Amino acid sequence: MTDLTKLTLAEARDGLAKGEYTSVELTEAHLKSMEAHRNLNAYITETPEKAIEMAKASDAKRAKGEAGKMEGLPIAVKDLFCTEGVQTTAASHILEGFKPEYESTVTSKLFENGAVMLGKANLDEFAMGSSNTSSYYGNAINPWKGKDGKDLVPGGSSGGSAAAVAANMALAATGTDTGGSIRQPASYCGIVGLKPTYGRCSRWGIVAFASSLDQAGPMTKTVRDAAIMLGSMAGHDAKDSTSAPMAVPDFEAALTGDIRGMKIGIPKEYRVDGMPEEISKLWDDGVAMLRDAGAEVVDVTLPHTKYALGTYYIVAPAEASSNLARYDGLRYGQRVMDEGDSLDDMYMKSRAAGFGKEVQRRIMIGTYVLSAGYYDAYYNKALKVRRRIYEDFANAFGTVDTILAPTAPSAAFAIGENEGDPVKMYLNDVFTVPASLAGLPGLSLPTGLSSEGLPLGLQLIGKPFDEETVLRVGGVLESAANFTAKPSGLEG
Amino acid sequence: MSYVIEGSTGPWEIVVGLEVHCQVISESKLFSGASTKFGNEPNTNVSLVDAAMPGMLPVVNAQCVRQAVKTGLGLKAKINKESVFARKNYFYADLPQGYQISQFDKPIVGEGTIILDMPDGSTKSVGIERLHLEQDAGKSMHDQDPKYSHIDLNRSGVALMEIVSMPDIRTPEEAGAYLTKLRAIVRYLGTCDGNMNEGSMRCDANVSVRRPGEPFGTRCEIKNVNSIRFVMQAIEIEAKRQVEVLEAGGEIVQETRLYDQRLGETRSMRSKEMAHDYRYFPDPDLLPLVFDDAFISEIEKELPELPDEKKARFMRENGLSAYDAGVLVAEKEKADYYEIVAKGRDGKLAANWVITNLFGALNKAEVGIADSPVSAENLGKLIDLISNDTISGRIAKDVFEIMIETGDDPEKIVEEKGLKQITDTGAIEGAIDEVIAANPDKVQEIRDGKDRMLGWFVGQVMKATGGKANPGMVNKLLRDKILG
């Protein structure tokens, strides 16, 4: 029997449909893989009993001829999605032990479509990070190894999700992306990650980081898998006022393989000073592949790109400082209090003990930029720049169908690197935040290896609610790049 | 009407602006489906959103939005076609989100006007600066446990309209009239029940003093005063305090103060330095509220006749004085009552009966119009009995006393007690003859020119007939008999 964990989501779907194996078998194979690769710390909470139970129910459903689009497919769920009765931590100490009485809209949809949950994937605390090193539950580790054999970061914040998929510990995983948290770890782990248009997937039941940016999306082995999974995650939700009242297209049908005549934009501002040669080359190779496939390559300009990172690191912490105010030790999660403490004492102790350093830093930045006297200089200015960034893209999309750029400025780095320098850490997001600020869909897929033999990704940025074009072009690029390398750090 | 505080160094004028929080009448909360019912067990009207569980999102309640627009239209205010919800950030135990969703620089309703009906019948207009929608907080209970405070989240997330006046108010009476009128308007509209004692209408007063004609002084905000009477008292007391401070050479510090109605003083609650930095910013979980003209005009069509219009109609159609009309429209129930009484009858006579007799009796008994023992229909019948000479005005007052006691139909009372007016000439003449016969000296006095003695005779005849004789007939017959 083939190793069921090496299947793509689409292959497993088709195999289940043909009755080649059951969901229980598929699930058990993944549970075994999770056990074998526990050293990667990709999961905060494993839910094997629940997984088997769901798989059994799924096989029964299939037997009755009621198979959904994700029927019987075992996936990892980023531990930012609230899951009913299953501990949801956001990788924070402050939420340790918190078991929601509700299921997030996205996971509800996935489960309704038949998906099986293997466990809750590790992430940066409250999704704040680019390395998964801010998790209270320990670092997730990239299954890829550099030449020196050091442990590498899987990227972040959806680092556990990316590591789980790359190490065949899940057929696919949910991620969330606020400034690159799906695309960057996908690039670091050599998988596909799709951040949909803001509003495509409901945010209801996802622990909020920055409400105007957060968006759920699939993290998968292939572009086709991303298309399949997005179809089961997306859709309007009356419980989320910012979710778009739009029909969900058949994303898989968009993978026609034909991009002849399409216009691909190359933004010159992304060719930043000091861009590593190998990233430059990766990009050029991608351009050549799309040209060879019959697309027309066009230079575009996104003049406000250089302000994107600064804008992002004002807007996101500002919203976070407010969104995280509810973690006060009163109603759920951790409370730290001594005899005779006042309410303020309890707030301070609970939050000081409950939040990690990076979260505290962002709460402070956010509180500062919203403060009287600084609001206009920072937050208000950032909103104006954000508008300009959106307009840059809107202008570019007047002439092109999609934009091609690198996902990240480097391959995965060693754990511990960049830790002392938050700004250097933030620079990992330089290519991903502009699309986040503009609310646009972005797809990262692996197209080459670094000199160290580590995966590197390119991203396609699309028009609002045009994930179909992004997926279509992504499918062609995927075929042309023929990325077949497997993580070097995995035994067996 | 000028109101000045005579200080030792000269006169001072007071300047007041009011911020009133009106709880919106709606089935469910501003951003959640939880019930707004008052008086339920603590923490039973609480949704996941109200408790600020992780990942929960607000969804605006369209009913609350319509109520706010309706109120704006009732205040003759500008409805802003685009408004934005903003977060007001602060930590408190009864604020689960750690922020209140409110509106900041883009409120749903802009400038408007309220016409005050003053006790002397005059009017004054006070500007409305804005009306915005916001969530109420929960309730902290500090008296449930010796060591801990308890929190009730039933109120958390209930919709409030904060209505902010311009600093146009110059006397405590105007503040009272403003609140009375505002309460009447929201009650007419059905957008707030206006019950200050239940907290569904709460008032903060911004008070400052100045020399007449000079620029505004530094103001203090008196928080959460819970009756109109207390608001008036608090303003008066606070203004006097400020005058004393200023005249003693001190300065007014901008601060928040509490009114202690027991001690009759205001006390500092927190100074400007201690004031929160609320870090307002647009709530990214909510889209701006955008209205088109059709939406607004649809709500406009639902507007009932409001106090000012009703007052004008009563003056125009029923010939009432501004004062009487103002008294009648002050509460919708009073106006409705009056309209039933006045229908098909003399409007002024009806107003007299309703205001002088009925309201007088109700005030004495401390009963509201809704609990009046005398129905509008029965009061109308009583007026009919006077108009068709079945009873005299004097007897009518007695009948009314009985109606207040028993709530009975006046026709029944008149019948049972035999109070029908005597209009039989013979019977009246009989009584007159007896009185004349018994008082020949007084008859002579009248004949000698002391006309006013005639009144004494009328009184005697009325007494003899138990008040039932028709006074007009008595008068006429007496004249005929004595003066021939």
TrEMBL record, chain A:
HAMAP family: GatA. This is Glutamyl-tRNA(Gln) amidotransferase subunit A. Heterotrimer of A, B and C subunits. Transmembrane segments: none annotated. The lineage of its organism: Bacteria, Pseudomonadati, Pseudomonadota, Alphaproteobacteria, Rhodospirillales. Keywords: ATP-binding, Ligase, Nucleotide-binding, Protein biosynthesis. InterPro entries: Amidase (IPR000120), Amidase_CS (IPR020556), Amidase_dom (IPR023631), AS_sf (IPR036928), GatA (IPR004412). SUPFAM superfamilies: Amidase signature (AS) enzymes. The keyword Nucleotide-binding applies. Residues 25-471 form the Amidase domain. Its EC number is 6.3.5.7. It holds the Pfam family Amidase. Belongs to the amidase family. GatA subfamily. Allows the formation of correctly charged Gln-tRNA(Gln) through the transamidation of misacylated Glu-tRNA(Gln) in organisms which lack glutaminyl-tRNA synthetase. The reaction takes place in the presence of glutamine and ATP through an activated gamma-phospho-Glu-tRNA(Gln). GO terms for molecular function: ligase activity. The active site is at residues 78, 157, 181. It catalyses: L-glutamyl-tRNA(Gln) + L-glutamine + ATP + H2O = L-glutaminyl-tRNA(Gln) + L-glutamate + ADP + phosphate + H(+).
Automatic annotation (TrEMBL), chain B:
GO terms for biological process: glutaminyl-tRNAGln biosynthesis via transamidation; translation. Keywords: ATP-binding, Ligase, Nucleotide-binding, Protein biosynthesis, Transferase. SMART domains: GatB_Yqey (SM00845). GO terms for molecular function: ATP binding; glutaminyl-tRNA synthase (glutamine-hydrolyzing) activity; transferase activity. The keyword Coiled coil does not apply. Pfam families: GatB_N (PF02934), GatB_Yqey (PF02637). PROSITE patterns: GATB. Residues 336-482 form the Asn/Gln amidotransferase domain. It is an enzyme of class 6 (ligase). It catalyses: L-glutamyl-tRNA(Gln) + L-glutamine + ATP + H2O = L-glutaminyl-tRNA(Gln) + L-glutamate + ADP + phosphate + H(+); L-aspartyl-tRNA(Asn) + L-glutamine + ATP + H2O = L-asparaginyl-tRNA(Asn) + L-glutamate + ADP + phosphate + 2 H(+). Its EC number is 6.3.5.-. Heterotrimer of A, B and C subunits. Belongs to the GatB/GatE family. GatB subfamily. Allows the formation of correctly charged Asn-tRNA(Asn) or Gln-tRNA(Gln) through the transamidation of misacylated Asp-tRNA(Asn) or Glu-tRNA(Gln) in organisms which lack either or both of asparaginyl-tRNA or glutaminyl-tRNA synthetases. The reaction takes place in the presence of glutamine and ATP through an activated phospho-Asp-tRNA(Asn) or phospho-Glu-tRNA(Gln). PANTHER family: GLUTAMYL-TRNA GLN AMIDOTRANSFERASE SUBUNIT B MITOCHONDRIAL AND PROKARYOTIC PET112-RELATED (PTHR11659), GLUTAMYL-TRNA(GLN) AMIDOTRANSFERASE SUBUNIT B, MITOCHONDRIAL (PTHR11659:SF0). This is Aspartyl/glutamyl-tRNA(Asn/Gln) amidotransferase subunit B. The lineage of its organism: Bacteria, Pseudomonadati, Pseudomonadota, Alphaproteobacteria, Rhodospirillales. The gene is gatB.
